[in-house]
Amino acid sequence: MPKRILEGLVVSDKGDKTVVVKVERTVLHPVLKKTVRVSKRYHAHDEANDFKAGEKIRIIECAPKSKLKTWEVLPREAN
């Protein structure tokens, strides 16, 4: 099964080798039939402490690294 890749905004980089990423999705409300934004925060492993708050990054699923961290930050693409 392929690993999921999500894109989101770094909201915190205070932890050592950890970033908190907010991922927003749009879903259809089951009763109101309106599109609503739903967000969720993921703790992701950032080995080199490269990413700072406010940056847009991509994360990928991985084996658990700690109690909360089951995601890794994908490296920046070379332009």
In short:
The chain is an all-beta fold and 79 residues long. The protein has strands spanning 5-12, 18-28, 35-45, 56-61, 71-73.
Which descriptors apply to this entry?
79 residues, mainly beta, OB fold (Dihydrolipoamide Acetyltransferase, E2P), five-stranded mixed beta barrel, rRNA binding
What are the SSEs and their pairings?
Layout: E1 5-12, E2 18-28, E3 35-45, E4 56-61, E5 71-73
Parallel strand pairs: 3-5
Antiparallel strand pairs: 1-2, 1-4, 2-3, 4-5
Keywords: Ribonucleoprotein, Ribosomal protein, RNA-binding, rRNA-binding
Protein name: Small ribosomal subunit protein uS17
GO cellular component, one term: cytosolic small ribosomal subunit
In CATH terms, the superfamily is Nucleic acid-binding proteins
Please report the total strand number as a whole number: 5
Strand content: over 45%
Instruction: Please give the CATH architecture.
Output: Beta Barrel
> Structurally, how many domains make up the residues?
1
Number of helical stretches of at least 4 residues: 0
Give the fraction of residues assigned to helices: under 10%
Q: Which radius of gyration do the C-alpha atoms yield?
A: 14 Å
**Secondary-structure element sequence?**
EEEEE
**Which stretches of 5+ consecutive residues score pLDDT under 50?**
none
Cα(first) to Cα(last) distance is: 29 Å
Main beta-sheet annotation: 5 strands, mixed, barrel
Give the mean pLDDT: 94
- Arrangement of strands in the largest sheet: 1-2-3-5-4
Shape descriptor reads globular
Give the structural class. mainly beta
Family: Belongs to the universal ribosomal protein uS17 family.
Subunit structure: Part of the 30S ribosomal subunit.
Pfam family, one: Ribosomal_S17
GO cellular component, one term: cytosolic small ribosomal subunit
